[in-house]
Amino acid sequence: MSKLVVYQKPTCTTSRKALKMLDEMGVNYDKINYYEKPFTKNKLKTLLKKMNLKAEDILRKRAKEYKELDFKNSNYNQAQIVEFMIKYPDLIERPIVEKGEKALLGRPVEKIKELL
Fold first, then answer.
1. Of 82, 81, 63, residue with least CA distance to 12
2. Single pTM value for the model
């Protein structure tokens, strides 16, 4: 059976809520701080495929880089958005939860239960 992996930022409130929920449920999981162990381009693209989402679907619109890169008025393609996400991890909504061949964005955190 595949282990649950939570890609998160420790200071993120939603990430902390997700980990707390999993702990309270007694779920065994690995957590990866993607600021300390950054996503590779291949890993991020694989997660997007597993989530059946496009890069813009997990863009964090509150990130300062979102405004600085003028996403609202720009027409970036998928490859460019992934490159920006690798360079500026704050652009990625979190947490991302993966189990085997499935993954999802853990917002709201209760959505994570779909993988259990």
1. 63
2. 0.93
| Number of residues that this document lists for the chain | 116
Element (H, E) at 96: strand 96-99
- 12 assigned to active site: yes
CA atoms within 13 A on the CB side of 107: 17
Helices (H) and strands (E) in the chain, counts: 4, 4
Of the residues 10, 12, 72, 81, which is catalytic?
Answer: 12
What are the tens digits of pLDDT across the range 76-108?
Answer: 999 999 999 999 999 999 999 999 999 999 999
Euclidean distance between CA atoms 7 and 16, whole angstroms: 11
Core vs surface per residue 45-71: b (16+ CB within 10 A) or e: eebbebbebebeebbbeebebbeebeb
